[in-house]
Amino acid sequence: MEDYEEEKSAPQSQNYEENKEGSNESEANNLQDEYDDAEGDYEHGEGVNALNLEYVRGYNKDIKDGVHNLTNGERKAIFYSAAHTGVIYDYEEGEQKLLQGHCNQITCTACSADKTLIVTADSGIDSMLVIWNSYDGIPIRTYFNPYENGICNLDISQDGRYLATISDDEFQSVSIWDLQNEELDEPLITTLCTYARDDRQHLIKFNPSDIYELVCHGKNHLAFLSWSEDSEEMEYYLSPIQSSSYSKKEKQKASFTSTVFVPDSTKAVTSTDKGDLLVWDISLIVDGMSHTNEKRLTKVLELHQDETAINTLTIHGDYIITGNEDGSVRFYDFDLKICGWFENLDLGRIKSISFADEEPPSARHDEDEEENELKCADFIVADSNAVICKLESRLFEELEPDQKKGEVIFTGLKSAINCIAVHPHESILAIGGKSGFLINWNYLTKEEEYKQLKEEPCAIEYSPDGKYLMGGTADGLIRIYDPYNNMAEMQAPCKTSERSNHAIKQLIVSNDSEHFATMDVNTCVCLFKRDHKYGDPNEPIEWVFYGKVKCHEIEITSIAFGESLDSNDEIQLRLFSIGKDRVLFEYDVSKSSEKNGLVIDNSKTMMIEQENVPTACIWYPTIDSKEDLLLTVNDVYKMKIWNVKSSQCRKTCLGPTYGGDISRLKKLEIDGNPDKFLAYSTFEKVIGLIKLPLDGNPTKTMGLIAHPNQVKDMCVSSDGKYLFTCGGVDLCVNKWSIDVTPIDNAIMMGGEGIEPFINLIEGGRDGQTFQDMKDFFYYSMVKSKTEGEDTTKTRKLDGKVSINQLGNLMRAMGHYPTLKEIENMVNEVEFAHFSENCEKVDRFGLDTFVKLFVNHRPVFGIGRPHIEKAFNTLFVDNKDKKPLAKVPRESFLQELASEGEPLMNQELGNLLDKLVGKSNIKEALGEEIWPETFAKDILSFEEVEEDEDDQEENYDPAMEGVTPDGTFDHNVIPEENFD
Question: Is the pTM of this model over 0.85?
Answer without folding.
Answer: yes
